[in-house]
Amino acid sequence: MPRTPEPSSPPALDPALLPALREGHPLIQCLTNVVTVNLVANAVLAIGGTPAMVDTPGEAGIFAGVASATLVNVGTIGAEQQRGMLEATDAAREAGTPWVLDPVAVGTLPVRTKLAHGLLERRPTVIRGNASEIRALAGDGGGGRGVDAADEVDAVAEVAADLARRSGVVVAVSGSVDLVTDGNRAVRVHAGHPLLTRITGAGCALGGVLAAFLATGEDPLVATVTAHAAYGVAAERAAADAAGPGSFAVGLLDALAAVQPADLAREGLTA
Q: Whole-model pTM?
């Protein structure tokens, strides 16, 4: 059942979701790219979920029907993986399983762009990506340079809000300040660290963490804002002790496991 934020909590953020997630150990199906699958699985484990990397056609749909939430990341998309993604999202829609679409490098490459638009028609719960990916998915631009954004978050705020309204989803745009919108409400999350851009898979791992928070059954915008806040706080703490990208990547997992509800209650948000 959705939880009501404490009166002292910032708008659209519910720290109580973190213990709810950890007590529930939700089963998170991750159809993600081969470059980052290990980090995604470990990030889901660290925050308190149970990852399952089930993407094989004939199994992906079955699993989406019993999973607590599903992540679909189009970073690498062989023909079999594409079939698994379409099968899983059809089953998720039928079962009411919340799912996250991460449109990696959409707009720059034709196969994944076509796939992402097909997945969008299957009504994800949340779309999360960088500014260029969100702009391209909305049909307003050509994408960035591979997984790197060419656009700033504020430059796509209206595009993101329009995509959210048209598609009936929550849109989360990652950047130096993250933007989360459902087309009516918009929240900026002031947490994170530049070292997130120096490791492979930081955004992919955020997608897994986000799916875990969606599994709590909270309002998707509240769950998304809370997930971004938890991830950003963990990144800041990992960076404080890191010597560079390598130790940061390891420290990020430790910090995700250590983050507490009180840490999120202090997180600054703006409209």
A: 0.92
